[in-house]
Amino acid sequence: MDETCTDLLRFLQESPTPYHAVESALRRLTAVGFSRLDEATSWRGLAPGRYAVIRGGSLLAFVLPPGPARAFRIAGAHTDSPNLRLKSRPEYAKMGYHQIGVEVYGGVILNSWLDRDLGLAGRIVVRQNGELETRLLQVDRPIARIPQLAIHLDREVNDRGLVLHRQEHLPPVLGLTGEDAPSALRSLCARELGVTPDDLLSFDLMLYDLTPPVVGGLSGEFLFSARLDNLAMCHASLGALIAAAEQVREGVPIPVVALFDHEEVGSSSATGAGAPLLPMLLERLVLATGGDRDDYHASLARSLCVSADMAHAVHPNYPERHETRHRPALNAGPVVKLNAQQRYATCGRMASLFDELCRRRGIKAQYYVHRTDLPCGSTIGPITATLLGIPTVDVGSPMLSMHSIREMAGTADPRLMTSALTAFLEHTGGLLPTTVQCDDRSLLGSRRRCPSSSTSWVGRLPREAHRPTIL
């Protein structure tokens, strides 16, 4: 296990919620010279440097070189993962048990949350000295559990499968009811924050698995953890930005990392990829370095984006669920994801670019296409491409058990993906392979004509004309 994977384990452990992930990411960035930038202040004349912007569970970071902002290289990922979140009035008593009401957030594999030791984390708004403050909370001990029904009371569960009712079967048990129920959880949160229960106003709290991330397998080839989807790609994007920051100089594209919240529920929020958060940041950078709105649109035309979200590795027990010729393997490199319905934003040109950048780093890219008879998931890639009109490639590290409370990946892949994303953020050329123009007489023979003429094309172009290159 290399240092990249070791630090990923720390990042996963520090990040039970999107809000904690952002704080953990900010600590890594500030340690290498990034400073937090306030959205509510003017950015006119912003000095060259390393900056980060935080909005809720989202973080955007970039390195601004001297001179005008002329182009961007963007790596996007998301900070949220499927889980169970507390309702606004969660506590109640039932059959002598103290329980809490929860909502299912995202595409949770429900049965994976049964019989787990669960902690509680998120953010709480408190009133202190007449002011409202938002504070992070993490109760990192087992205070909740969702007990599964005994097989003696459900004899057919192994034959017909387990069916869970979201409203009735998922509320966790916190304890036995007593004189302090059902307000014991509120009192616990107040004690953790050093305030009184009356100071608690509202919250965004969620349950999480307390089992720490670990390396497993006979030779340490596997990584077992919660929230690999998609904190592993957040970590790789941060590592790539930190590495690429050393290469930033005047005249090169600005490297940007955008880590969004709420991808698992559609990205439609003030902190999701569907919000104008990223477009506003890019435009403000162009304006801050002396450009105007026309310069902003020109900079978008010179920009590229990679959407990094975990990919499906082939499952040895269910190989038939994968498209036959697109079966990514663990520890075999980044996966380029394609879908004709634009559930992924990748086109042939961007796939070629990413593949070539990987090759130059000694990395072999893999490819994934969803089975045609199964509905395909999506990412922030198509959303970003739609908002900005920037050519985008969807990629991800391969994994198993996606959206389970406990997921599985390879220990070699974090380093490979970080290296690939670094190459992307450092890429200074244009988008190729180049398009051959029909009126280029040096490439077209005497019998070839432009397709707009009445004469059809005959023969082949020279081999050099078909060779993809990267500027």
How would you portray this structure in words?
The chain has 12 helices and 20 strands. A 9-stranded mixed β-sheet has the order 1-2-3-13-4-14-18-16-17, with helices on both faces. Strands 11-12-20-19-15 form a 5-stranded mixed β-sheet, with no helix packed on it. The chain has a 3-stranded antiparallel β-sheet with strand order 5-6-9, with no helix packed on it. It is an alpha/beta fold and 471 residues long.
Blueprint (SSEs and pairs):
Layout: H1 3-14, H2 18-30, E1 35-36, E2 49-55, E3 58-64, E4 72-78, E5 83-94, E6 97-105, E7 118-128, E8 131-144, H3 157-160, H4 166-169, E9 173-176, H5 184-193, E10 200-209, E11 214-216, E12 222-225, H6 228-244, E13 254-260, H7 277-288, H8 293-301, E14 304-308, E15 311-312, E16 335-338, H9 348-360, E17 366-369, H10 381-388, E18 392-396, E19 398-400, E20 407-410, H11 413-426, H12 463-466
Parallel strand pairs: 1-2, 4-13, 4-14, 14-18, 15-19, 16-17
Antiparallel strand pairs: 2-3, 3-13, 5-6, 6-9, 7-8, 7-10, 11-12, 12-20, 16-18, 19-20
Helix pairs in contact: 1-6, 1-11, 2-6, 6-11, 7-8
Which keywords apply here?
471 residues, alpha/beta, Aminopeptidase, Aminopeptidase i, Domain 2, five-stranded mixed beta sheet, 26% strand, globular, disordered C terminus
Question: Percent range for helical residues?
Answer: 25-40%
CATH homologous superfamily grouping of the largest domain? Zn peptidases
State the end-to-end distance.
34 Å
Per DSSP, the total helix count is: 12
Count structural domains.
Answer: 3
Which percent band covers the strand fraction? Answer: 25-35%
Shape: globular
CATH topology heading of the largest domain: Aminopeptidase
The main sheet comes to:
9 strands, mixed
CATH secondary-structure class of the largest domain: Alpha Beta
Low-confidence stretches: 440-471
Q: In terms of structural class, how would the helical and strand content be classed?
A: alpha/beta
